[in-house]
Each structure stands twice: as structure tokens, then as C-alpha cells.
């Protein structure tokens, strides 16, 4: 019984040390956690996407700078309140916030048409007429389920703009205004 007691004490200590070690690794991250030399300074930025009084969940909010930034991706995904906390990604490094500048905003939603996906083999087995009919059905269903107007889904056609300076920025977009 005494041996069993020492085993559990030893096991408990090993587990605790392992948990603390694992927590340290997770909190400190892997690899280089410091910003690259040429990483731009960022400022807090939130974009809220609404459909009237209803927050839109899971919408990708992408920012496209008027003055292009090399290898930089800026965006976020809306949460249950319709708010996207914007982050700037440069290579493997990312930081919450947006660099100074003027941006076009593109909104992208995921639309589930309920039409099952086909394997490559199933797709290949269809005739051209069946493929065309399937594509038309997908396009029709997608349009009927679309909440975000098409004009807001392209960085070329979007009228949405955002200006970020050295302060926190919050923007609310109601897609109803663009329908």
C-alpha cells in the first residue's frame, strides 16, 4: 500500500510538472513571436456587420489598402454579435489591429445551398447538360440565400471604405442600405 501511495504522489508531481511545462509552451508560442522589422504599426479596429437589427455571424471582413502593403493580409470574422476584430497578418506573424491608411472593405458570407457536393468521379459521370443544370441550380439557390448584396462582395465594386489613423476605429455596416 505504501508503494502505491508513493507512486500516486510521484505520478501527481509528474503530471503537474508536465501540465505546467505544456502551459508554458502554449503561452509562449512556437517559433519567433516578435514582429518582423518592417511590420507596420497597428491600431485597434472593429467592424460590425448587421442585416437591419440582426447581427450577421461568420462573415469574413477583408480590408484592401488603397496603398498596397506587400505580403500583408488584413481582416477578421464576425462573431455572434456581428463584430469582427480586425487583425493584420504578415507572413507567420499576426497582430490585432490595422495599419494607418485608407481601405476598401469586402464582405464574404458562406452560403450552404443544401445541395450535396459531388466527388470527382460523380462529377465526371454527369453529362454536360446535367452539369449545366446543377450549376444553374447552385447559382439560383445561392442568390436566393444571399444576405450580403453582391456589390459588397468584391474589392473592385464595394463602396465600403474605412480610414484608419492613430486611434481606435469602430465601423458599423448595415447591409440593408445596399440592397
Structure at a glance:
The chain has 3 helices and 10 strands; from the N terminus they run H-E-E-E-E-E-E-E-E-H-H-E-E. The protein has 179 residues and is of the alpha+beta class.
Structural domains: how many: 2
Low-confidence stretches: 1-32
Strand content: 25-35%
- Overall morphology: globular
Structural class, by secondary structure, is alpha+beta
Helix count, DSSP H or I runs of 4 or more residues:
3
CATH fold label of the largest domain: Immunoglobulin-like
Mean pLDDT: 83
CATH architecture of the largest domain: Sandwich
Order of the strands making up the biggest sheet: 7-6-4-3-8-9
The largest β sheet comes out as: 6 strands, antiparallel
What is the number of E strands?
Answer: 10
CATH class of the largest domain equals Mainly Beta
The ordered H/E elements are HEEEEEEEEHHEE
Radius of gyration, CA atoms, in whole angstroms? 24 Å
Cα(first) to Cα(last) distance is 75 Å
- The helical percent reads 25-40%
Amino acid at each position: 500500500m505504501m508503494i502505491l501511495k508513493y507512486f500516486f504522489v510521484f505520478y501527481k508531481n509528474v503530471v503537474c510538472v508536465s501540465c505546467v511545462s505544456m502551459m508554458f509552451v502554449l503561452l509562449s508560442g512556437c517559433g519567433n513571436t516578435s514582429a518582423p522589422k518592417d511590420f507596420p504599426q497597428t491600431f485597434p479596429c472593429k467592424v460590425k456587420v448587421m442585416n437591419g437589427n440582426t447581427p450577421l455571424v461568420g462573415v469574413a471582413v477583408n480590408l484592401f489598402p488603397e496603398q498596397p502593403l506587400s505580403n500583408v493580409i488584413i481582416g477578421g470574422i464576425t462573431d455572434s454579435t456581428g463584430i469582427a476584430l480586425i487583425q493584420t497578418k504578415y507572413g507567420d506573424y499576426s497582430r490585432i489591429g490595422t495599419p494607418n491608411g485608407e481601405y476598401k472593405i469586402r464582405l464574404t458570407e458562406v452560403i450552404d445551398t443544401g445541395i450535396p457536393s459531388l466527388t470527382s468521379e460523380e462529377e465526371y459521370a454527369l453529362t454536360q447538360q446535367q452539369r449545366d443544370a446543377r450549376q444553374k441550380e447552385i447559382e439560383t439557390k445561392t442568390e436566393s440565400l444571399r444576405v450580403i448584396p453582391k456589390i459588397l462582395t468584391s474589392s473592385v465594386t464595394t463602396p465600403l471604405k474605412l480610414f484608419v489613423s492613430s486611434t481606435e476605429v469602430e465601423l458599423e455596416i448595415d447591409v440593408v442600405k445596399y440592397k
